[in-house]
Design a protein that fits this description.
Strand content of chain B: 15-25%
Number of domains of chain B: 2
CATH architecture of the largest domain in chain B: Orthogonal Bundle
Low-confidence stretches of chain B: none
CATH class of the largest domain in chain B: Mainly Alpha
Number of strands of chain B: 5
Distance between the termini of chain B: 28 Å
Number of helices of chain A: 12
Radius of gyration of chain B: 20 Å
Shape of chain A: globular
Structural class of chain B: alpha+beta
Strand order of the largest sheet of chain B: 4-3-2-1-5
Order of helices and strands of chain B: HHHHHHEEHEHEE
Number of helices of chain B: 8
Helix content of chain B: 25-40%
Strand content of chain A: 5-15%
Largest sheet of chain A: 2 strands, parallel
Largest interface: A-B, 82 and 95 residues
Oligomer: heterodimer
Low-confidence stretches of chain A: 1-13
CATH topology of the largest domain in chain B: Cyclin A, domain 1
CATH superfamily of the largest domain in chain A: Nitrile hydratase alpha /Thiocyanate hydrolase gamma
Number of domains of chain A: 2
CATH class of the largest domain in chain A: Alpha Beta
Structural class of chain A: mainly alpha
Chain lengths: 211, 218
């Protein structure tokens, strides 16, 4: 199990398999031959994350909260219950917590210790979320991090960082963009980006989707 | 392992965050297989999520930093299947099975994969919560050689209980395979000046999710 000759940035050239292709295939083969895993079950897991589980789930929750004040109240009181009440999503694991952006407060979610992220509503965390620059700086220099994402907030805005150090998972409810009166839940969901639900972005403006 | 490279909050020198437009779920096919293997082997129930995290933290800092996320997962998984007797070192070296597998209590089938059981880390409380919302608390200065979820940057610092999150499995115990040892969990909010000094930006507040054994009255 020595990693002394690892080159994690190597990619396969042509038909040549990378070191990681070979090692992962070998481990899967061993675990399958010994009867511990079913390759068909593995296929299903990969397929779920490539198709079904993603930020569109969180976007639906946010859009509903924007148009339905009672749903928003429930979401902020118990996000797991509220998300599961929508019914059309995969069940959301326990301990989901929704935190609301306001004109005074902007929320930003990080996991400084590993990669804790609300998978059930946002899907797989992006590479940057798991990276050393984000994990190291979000708690000390959140304005610098936001600048890396091209986000500038008014100087008086309080920036509230949530470090996900336990099994609680945080979903940011961004502010509803101006100019969206009368929009449907589906139209609004199209404005809700993944980054806006982590706090490193803002929702799209109406102009960005109607152009 | 606690004071290792994974505990990154407040470190400097890693550079800019680099968002990737239209990032795919997986950058390489093997990454998806590692995620699936992690889930399917975890389903067998031989270790806790906290023991899984502890095995990643036990990677040397050099291996940790030079490995991509899913490579770290792979290295941790490879260690755990060997440590728990599922696979022999000789089989890892050979790249194939050399003897039949051991009997398992359960194995993930296709239906389990499509409808994964929801994990619930809440547990009945062994007693009343020691702290209430609004209480001032000090995070203990601890440096255990084993797994903990109290980040270094918060140790010794004074914060305010922002919320009580219920009673949960205690990672520090669960990572050792020593049971759930349920503990009250709190959101504890710190000012940036408490964490980073008087020059820190006063518009910034940071919270951690802190288990009761991490906290003292302040």
């Amino acid at each position: 199990m020595s990693d002394d000759h690892a080159h994690p940035d190597d990619h396969a050239h042509g038909s040549e398999l990378s070191e990681m292709d070979v090692r992962v295939r070998a481990l899967e083969t061993i675990l399958t031959e010994k009867g511990y895993v079913d390759p068909a079950a593995l296929d299903k897991i990969v397929e779920a994350f490539e198709t079904r589980v993603g930020p569109h789930n969180g976007a639906r929750i946010v859009a509903r909260a924007w148009i339905d004040p009672e749903f928003k109240r429930r979401l902020l009181a118990d996000a797991t219950e509220a998300a599961n009440s929508l019914g059309k999503l995969d069940p959301v694991a326990n301990h989901l917590i929704a935190v609301e952006n306001t004109p005074d407060t902007h929320n930003l979610v990080v996991c400084t210790l590993c990669s804790c992220y609300p998978w059930s509503v946002l899907g797989l965390p992006p590479v940057w979320y798991k990276s050393a620059p984000y994990r190291s700086r979000a708690v000390m220099d959140p304005k610098g991090v936001l600048a890396d994402f091209g986000v500038t907030l008014p100087p008086e805005t309080e920036i509230r960082i949530w470090d996900s150090t336990a099994e609680t998972r945080f979903l940011v409810v961004p502010m509803r963009p101006a100019g969206t009166d009368g929009w449907s839940e589906e139209q609004l969901a199209a404005l809700v980006t993944r980054d806006s639900m982590v706090g490193t972005g803002l929702p799209k403006s109406p102009a960005e989707v109607t152009r | 392992m606690t004071n290792s490279i994974h505990d990154m909050g407040g470190m400097q020198g890693f550079g800019r965050v680099e968002p990737e437009p239209n990032e795919p779920p997986f950058h390489e096919k093997w990454e998806g297989r590692v995620l699936a293997l992690q889930r399917a082997v975890g389903f067998i129930g031989l270790w806790t999520i906290d023991a899984g995290r502890a095995s990643l933290e036990a990677l040397s800092p050099l291996d940790y930093l030079r490995s991509s996320y899913y490579r770290r997962w792979f290295l941790g998984l490879e260690r755990r299947v060997v440590r728990h007797g599922l696979v022999g070192e000789d089989e890892i070296a050979a790249g194939r099975s050399l003897r039949p597998g051991i009997r398992l209590n359960r194995k993930m089938n296709v239906s389990d994969a499509e409808h994964p059981p929801l994990t619930n880390f809440a547990r009945p409380a062994p007693g009343p919560a020691r702290f209430k919302e609004g209480d001032q608390v000090r995070a203990k200065n601890i440096n255990p050689a084993t797994h903990t979820r109290l980040p270094r940057y918060a140790r010794g610092k004074i914060g305010t209980v922002g919320a009580i999150r219920g009673c949960h499995v205690f990672p520090d115990t669960a990572a050792l395979g020593a049971g759930d040892n349920p503990q009250w969990l709190y959101t504890v909010v710190f000012s940036a000046s408490e964490l980073w000094g008087e020059d820190a930006d006063r518009s910034i507040k940071v919270s951690i999710e802190a288990f009761e054994p991490y906290l003292l009255p302040a």
